[in-house]
Design goal:
heterodimer; A: Rossmann fold; 5-stranded parallel beta sheet; 4-stranded parallel beta sheet; globular; B: 179 residues; alpha/beta; Rossmann fold; 8 strands; PRTase_dom (chain B)
Chain lengths: 310, 179
């Protein structure tokens, strides 16, 4: 199988073919999730640890479920009880965990590159579940999976990402993943939240939502982090909603074939009005479901078949 | 392959031979299971699947055919160098209460069948599972025996039995290669 990686650190390291390998495999695991007993023994005897240094419910749960569906044991390392609070370094914490015979670490950390650093120093495989504003590869993969499920081939598909592009690892990983799969990616948001040079990733920038919204096949609405308001990057959530939100008024003018996705959790009434939840073209729940299958594929590729490290 | 000893390849079955064995397998299945309506055939991927389809044609009565891919149930994941390809299982019917005939091309160690049994039982509780194979080449490592055997072939452990089927390989033939 075409996946010569020991870790999943980012989409950046993956070729188009490798992305397709993960997505095709995820389709097989999607079928497993629909079985009467949605568990297969593929990774029996393996252990992974979820190390989330930033709060997360969805992603951590999704990884835990993905592991258990593969009969892989999964332990959640609780943030509050973590020894980093006692001053232990990240590397020490991870070395200690690895010493307990762990095959893989799923890590979310506020510092960009933290998973890459661990990958250089540990024998366990590392899955990046979000490193600062850098990458969130499994989110990009599950978004691509969800879109492939709807559209088949993604080449030529027009995808618009709306919101805080500057602080979003989801945006970054998505741009990389979708462009590699041949989609055309547009980003839109307030100038304060669009990083200079983002075009170099292969996307086009818009500052006015209404100029591009009706031209695209897919809208990916990012979560607006309320911390940004405090930092003075935005005047108010009301203004944000008016300019960049999928409001009831904007929905009225939208082609029903336009698909809406969101990495969750949604700030209803800010980036999207609640009306979106009821729409058949909103694939948010599909994304959540597909996330488990995609993470199963990632864990299987990294944990399965490899010879025991000695 | 040992140096200096060229491999010898011998034909065990022709297309006609395979067809004849399938006729006999179908007849044996029918003799043992009077009510065709209770049956379902499940091929083990990959070459068990076309064989299951051919048996279904011979049995008639619209016996449903499914496929299992045992990759995720293998017991040797940590022994194989490359991650095995997952092809996916397709069971488009409810196996609860049915008599499921598991079909594979060759039975060797029995580990594939063991994995297929584990997988089938995760789909439900069939009334019974029976096993049909085209070739039994011996060397079992598990207490598993087929209910219906096309041909019993004496082999050495390191012999290679190749089953070619028109659906997957363009022609029907069974060969034995001795190293």
């Amino acid at each position: 199988m075409n996946f010569p990686h020991r870790h999943l650190l980012g989409i950046e390291q993956l070729s188009r073919d490798e992305i397709v390998t993960v997505l095709d495999l995820a389709r097989k695991f999607r079928e497993v999730l629909d079985r009467p007993i949605p568990v297969v023994p593929a990774l029996r005897g393996k252990t992974v640890i979820n190390l989330f240094f930033e709060p997360s419910t969805r992603t951590a749960t999704s990884f835990t479920l993905a592991a258990s569906r593969l009969s892989c044991q999964c332990v959640n390392f609780s943030l509050a009880a973590s020894s980093t609070r006692k001053g232990e370094s990240l590397l020490d914490t991870c070395r200690n965990i690895e010493a307990m015979r762990v095959d893989g670490l799923v890590i979310r950390h506020a510092v960009p590159g933290a998973p890459h650093f661990l990958a250089r120093h540990l024998r366990a495989f590392i899955v990046n579940a979000g490193d600062g504003a850098h990458e969130h590869p499994t989110q990009a993969l599950l978004d691509a999976f969800t879109l492939r499920e709807r559209f088949g081939d993604l080449s030529g598909l027009k995808v618009l990402i709306v919101g805080d592009i500057a602080h979003s690892r989801v945006a970054r990983s998505n741009i990389l993943c979708l462009t590699r799969l041949g989609a055309r990616v547009y980003v839109c948001g307030p100038p304060t939240l669009i990083p200079p040079g983002i075009e170099q990733l292969g996307c086009e920038v818009f500052y006015r939502l209404d100029r591009i919204l009706r031209e695209v096949n897919v809208v990916n609405m990012l979560r607006l982090q309320t911390e940004r308001m405090a930092a003075g990057m935005l005047p108010s959530t009301r203004e944000y909603r008016q300019l960049y939100g999928l409001t009831r008024e904007r929905l009225a003018g939208l082609d029903p074939a336009t698909v809406i996705i969101h990495p969750g959790p949604v700030n209803w009434g800010v980036e999207m009005d609640y009306d979106v939840a009821e729409l058949p073209q909103a694939l948010i729940m599909n994304q959540v479901k597909n996330g488990v299958a995609v993470r199963m594929a990632v864990l299987y590729l990294l944990a399965g078949g490899q010879e025991e490290a000695t | 392959m040992k140096r200096g000893t060229p491999a010898t390849k011998r034909r065990l079955l022709s297309a006609k031979g395979i067809s004849h064995l399938l006729d006999r397998l179908a007849a044996a299945i029918r003799r043992r299971n009077r009510r065709i309506g209770d049956l379902a055939l499940v091929g083990i991927k990959r070459r068990g699947v076309p064989l299951a389809k051919r048996l279904a044609e011979r049995l008639g009565g619209g016996v449903p055919v499914g496929a299992v891919d045992i990759t995720l149930y293998r017991d040797d994941l940590r022994l194989v160098a490359e991650t095995p390809i997952v092809r996916g299982s397709e069971l488009g019917f409810d196996i609860n209460g049915r008599i499921v005939i598991l079909v594979d091309d060759v039975i060797f160690t029995g580990r594939t069948v063991r994995a297929a049994l584990a997988e089938l039982l995760d789909y439900g509780r069939p009334r019974a599972i029976q096993l049909a194979v085209l070739v039994d080449r011996g060397h079992r490592e598990l207490p598993i025996a087929p209910d219906f055997t096309g041909r019993l072939v004496k082999t050495r452990r390191d012999d290679i039995v190749d089953i070619l089927l028109s659906e997957t390989d363009g022609r029907d033939e069974v060969t034995l290669t001795r190293r």
